[in-house]
Design goal:
Oligomer: single chain
Helix content: 25-40%
Mean pLDDT: 89
Order of helices and strands: HEHHEEHEEEEHEHEHHHH
Radius of gyration: 20 Å
Number of strands: 9
Strand order of the largest sheet: 1-4-8-9
Strand content: 5-15%
Length: about 350
């Protein structure tokens, strides 16, 4: 009689042996890439605020990180205007529905009935409300900038080898009239909340899977060799619109997103999953990778995530970014701290009261 199959399985498939060294930041065999990523690979990023960390560290290690919408003029506060956060100036894309609709709007297949918000003579893009904090001077200027943005999105699809997308939320606010998905609730970053028009929706597993399948199919239609590396944001919800504790909503949201990522990887050989979520949230980490509020991921946490990524791809050059080594030291200046910040629209759902 043959031995049971567990007797021949590697250590990484057993809890006791597989988590050894976790507290020291050693994640042996946690991530085994499905396809290689080298410094020649053209990598683009999109998704929730945690994806900003990935793009920043790829750039720091001199990978072929793509930026299809750089700032046309030098600014000291590029992040404030949405530049350099991702491979396009689309801001945070928290949900699969946003991602899907952005691609459809970029090709003229979806035109929301309300695509400009106006207040006090200033004009705001409902789908990128943070890119101009004080709004545009005219609707014409907004549309010109938006057309340029859509050209950048189309170019990104055609000119990338790997698309890194971080799934962030299942909860979203949408327009009752045409289903247009907003990055955050109207009236928080820009616009005004209209209870007759703006409705809450918590996307299901099936809906997110359908959104992602449609988005990836469209992208690969224009770039058949494009691959996708999916991650799930380990950042808990800042607030929930469900009538329940935010911790319960966070568990639901992240569980659904993780399940979708796993299903997409199982279905397609051009999809891989990188376990940044597991590194930060696993019980072996004992919450050490979060800041004191238990929501923001610490720089040490980011460093461990990126070290796992780079080492799995054969890059053993040490910490991903020199600035990460400075965290907590006397030399760590405010300027560097600001550079490491991520821009998170969702956090504005629960503003800090001075």
């Amino acid at each position: 009689m043959a031995d049971n199959p567990y007797k021949s399985m590697p250590d990484r498939q057993f809890w006791r042996r597989g988590v050894e060294g976790w507290s020291e930041g050693t994640y042996k065999n946690l991530y085994i890439p499905r396809f290689p990523i080298t410094r020649k690979t053209r990598i683009s990023t999109a998704g929730s605020c945690f994806a900003q960390n990935i793009g920043r560290e790829l750039r720091a290690r001199k990978y072929n990180y793509q930026d299809f919408e750089p700032s046309p003029v030098p600014r000291l506060d590029l992040k404030t205007y949405g530049y350099g956060l991702f491979s396009g100036r689309y801001g945070n894309i928290y949900t699969s529905r946003q991602f899907y609709q952005m691609c459809r709007r970029a090709t003229g297949r979806f035109k929301p009935s309300q695509d400009i918000w106006e207040k006090d003579g200033r004009f705001y893009d409902p789908f990128r409300p943070s890119i101009e904090p004080n709004g545009f001077g005219s609707a014409e200027e907004l549309r010109t900038v938006r057309d340029s943005h859509f050209r950048a999105v189309r170019k990104m699809v055609k000119k990338s080898d790997v698309m890194v997308f971080t799934l962030g939320l299942t909860e979203m606010w949408m327009d009752r009239v045409d289903g247009a998905a907003y990055p955050t609730c109207p009236g928080t970053v820009a616009g005004e909340f209209d209870p007759e028009r703006h409705v809450f929706k918590n996307l299901s597993f099936g809906e997110i899977l359908e959104d992602m399948e449609a988005t990836m199919a469209w992208m690969r239609k224009h770039n058949p060799n494009l691959k996708f590396l999916l991650t799930v944001s380990p950042v808990p919800l800042a607030a929930t619109a469900e009538d329940q504790h935010v911790a319960v909503s966070t568990t639901y949201s992240k569980s659904v997103l993780r399940a979708v990522a796993g299903e997409l990887r199982a279905r397609h050989d051009y999809v891989d999953y990188f376990p940044s979520y597991e590194i930060i949230t696993a019980p072996m980490s004992r919450g050490a990778h979060y800041e004191s509020g238990m929501r923001e991921v610490s720089m040490d946490g980011v460093a461990n995530v990126m070290r796992c990524f780079f080492e799995a791809h054969g890059d053993f050059r040490g910490p991903p970014s020199p600035k990460l080594e400075m965290a907590g030291s006397a030399e760590y200046e405010t300027a560097e701290a600001k550079e490491m910040e991520v821009i998170c629209d969702e956090a504005k759902l629960d503003p800090v009261v001075a």
